[in-house]
Design a protein that fits this description.
Layout: E1 3-8, H1 12-28, E2 31-32, E3 41-46, H2 51-69, E4 75-80, H3 81-93, E5 99-100, H4 109-114, E6 147-151, E7 153-154, H5 165-169, E8 173-174, H6 177-189, E9 194-198, H7 214-222, E10 230-233, H8 243-251, E11 258-260, H9 268-273, H10 280-293, E12 298-305, H11 312-325, E13 329-334, H12 352-375, E14 381-389, E15 397-400, E16 412-414, E17 424-432, E18 437-440
Parallel strand pairs: 1-2, 1-3, 3-4, 4-5, 6-9, 9-10, 11-12, 12-13, 16-18
Antiparallel strand pairs: 7-8, 14-15, 14-17, 15-16, 17-18
Helix pairs in contact: 6-7, 7-8, 11-12
């Protein structure tokens, strides 16, 4: 029996693709191994979105190529966005790689791995991105048993000038509500407590199916699925957050009051160049509507600094907006100058050191905001999903409340008690830090 290893890089959407490929291979009879040096075949599922992600992917490929040179694996396959974007160039420059596959080959992975001699090739006709997995697709979860990502749609119809994703992933296409409910139901039966819905733009869900307010319809259906405790939505396009969606988020205990909305900037000129429209005043009105609709919402956003044309005044406009809105969580990225985007002809005039300096200033501002906001949680009690033992000490458990997403937001440290991953327990907050909180169960029991 051949052993297959997988290195999955990039976003959660890419991780779902990796899990589907692992499911396909396991169903075919392959043995899966987490140790690349123990594998006969290694698949590197790459990210090709921005420079840093591309560098990480190339480094991983070269590391696996070295294992192949040492005779520790027979076949090296590269898949995903970087391969989709540069497969011709990479094929010419990386002879150690036996096969390059794109985002459309996820469901066909077994036929490519079956041919260990590398005679099978992905012909050009199969590279057009139109694959969409379903509830019937086999899948092996690589996340902790109590939490899973579910991709509700693929591709994107937006025209953001900095983004290459529509070129790589194709036009927006949604799974049906029934299909998603079927998968989530099965995951609940397998012990998953938390479902994280992901898409390139979750609020666009269902438009291609003729659904009105499709995401709200989907969340209402998922709120009825037994055994699932939390449903969290990621990656919402701001101006498609409807009143009905806010009503569902605020009215169902299973639906996390958590809005993950990449706003990208606040300066009107920069947003226009990004092809995102609006400006600070419109964004402030939008945020007022969000907080009026779901007063207890936790809000995450992300911003790009160093976009062409962002002068110090534009950056200060962004800082003023962030300070005024006091987001719960914030991601900051430096602009990556990507060919084949409509922003590419604008050039990349802002030096990298200026981009990094602005990133640091914005993150420092957010750290102060986060610390002050968390201080307001002292004495409050939150239901916390236990993740496991703290990596630095066995004396603490770690977990998250509904307003904290895995890996990107803060955590709650549980100072007393014995619980297992997947338990949901009431924790009263007794101490706060820059991004995290700590507390203990005050006479509560698992819920």
């Amino acid at each position: 029996m051949k052993k297959v290893g997988m290195l999955s890089l990039g976003c959660a959407k890419n991780l779902v693709d990796s899990e589907v490929m692992l499911g396909e291979l396991q169903q075919e009879g392959y043995q899966l191994t987490p140790d690349a040096s123990d594998a006969d075949v290694v698949i590197v599922n790459t990210c090709g979105f921005i420079d840093k992600a591309k560098e990480e992917s190339v480094d991983a490929i070269l590391e696996m190529a070295e294992l192949k040179k040492q005779g520790k694996l027979q076949k090296l396959i590269v898949s995903g966005c970087l391969s989709q974007r540069y497969h011709a160039e990479m094929s010419a420059g990386m002879p150690e790689v036996d096969l390059f596959l794109g985002v459309n080959h996820v469901g066909d992975i077994r036929k490519f791995v079956d041919d260990l001699r590398g005679e099978t090739r992905a012909d050009e006709a199969t590279w057009r991105p139109d694959f969409l997995y379903s509830a019937d697709s086999p899948r092996v979860l690589t996340t902790p048993r109590h939490s899973a990502y579910v991709k509700i749609s693929e591709g994107c119809d937006h025209v953001c000038s900095f983004c290459i994703i529509p070129n790589l992933r194709g036009k927006h296409r949604s799974r049906t509500v029934q299909d998603i409910v079927q998968e989530v139901t099965r995951l609940g039966e397998q012990g998953v407590r938390e479902i994280n819905l992901v898409a390139q733009d979750s609020t666009y869900y269902g438009r291609d199916l003729g659904l009105k307010d499709g995401l709200a319809q989907l969340l209402e259906a998922l709120s009825q699925v037994p055994k699932i405790a939390w449903v969290r939505v990621h990656y919402m396009y701001p101006y498609q957050v409807t009143d009905r969606l806010l009503e569902i988020m605020g009215g169902h205990s299973k639906i996390c009051s958590y809005l993950d909305m990449p706003l990208q900037h606040a300066d009107k000129g920069v947003l226009a160049a990004m092809k995102r429209g609006s400006g600070r005043a419109q964004l402030e009105k939008f945020m007022d509507r969000i907080r009026a609709g779901v007063p207890d919402a936790w809000v995450r956003s992300s911003f790009i600094v160093g976009f062409p044309g962002e002068d110090e005044a534009a950056f200060q406009e962004l800082c003023a907006f962030v300070e005024g809105q006091a987001f719960d969580y914030l991601g900051v990225f430096t602009y990556s100058h990507e060919e084949d985007t409509t922003a590419y002809p604008l050039g990349d005039a802002i030096p990298e050191e200026v981009k990094e300096e602005r990133k640091g200033r914005l993150l420092e501002l957010q750290r102060d905001i986060s610390r002050k906001k968390l201080e307001g949680n002292l004495g409050k009690t939150y239901d916390v999903l236990v993740e496991g033992v703290h990596p630095e000490t066995e004396l603490l458990l770690r977990g998250r409340h509904q307003g904290q997403a895995s890996e990107v937001d803060g955590e709650v440290f549980i100072t007393e008690g014995s619980y297992v991953p997947g338990d949901i327990i009431p924790v009263t907050i007794e101490e706060t830090f820059d991004y995290d909180m700590a507390g203990r169960v005050m006479g509560g029991i698992e819920v």
